[in-house]
Design goal:
This protein has 5 helices and no strands. The protein has 103 residues and is mainly α. The chain has one domain. Helix 1 packs across helix 3 and helix 2 crosses helix 3.
């Protein structure tokens, strides 16, 4: 049985989900994973659909706990949520992983 798009899931394209079974993805249980994938690899329409589905505050709370965001995505999130990079888990985690050597 195919889930109804728009009723129990956001109208998000499968663009960012090339590596998972998009049709069986639970958007509530895996919300942080979905938010991470859409922000890093999704289309603009996917991002707006994500905000309409989860709401601004929930996306903000989840994005602070995401383990990895691209640098451009982190900058985008800093602007739209009015936050500093140091407030994001992905930024502090990246800073604690030193490069083995610089050659």
């Amino acid at each position: 049985m195919k889930p109804e798009i728009g009723k129990n899931r956001p109208a998000i394209s499968p663009t960012a989900f090339w590596d998972v079974d998009f049709e069986h993805l639970d958007f509530e249980i895996k919300s942080r994973f979905v938010i991470e994938k859409v922000l890093n690899y999704g289309l603009w329409a996917d991002i707006t659909a994500l905000f309409h589905y989860h709401g601004f505050e929930r996306v903000k709370a989840e994005v602070l706990e995401i383990a990895y965001l691209k640098k451009k995505t982190l900058s985008f999130c800093c602007v739209i949520f009015d936050l500093k990079p140091e407030q994001f888990r992905c930024y502090t985690r990246q800073q604690s992983s030193p490069v083995p050597w610089n050659y």
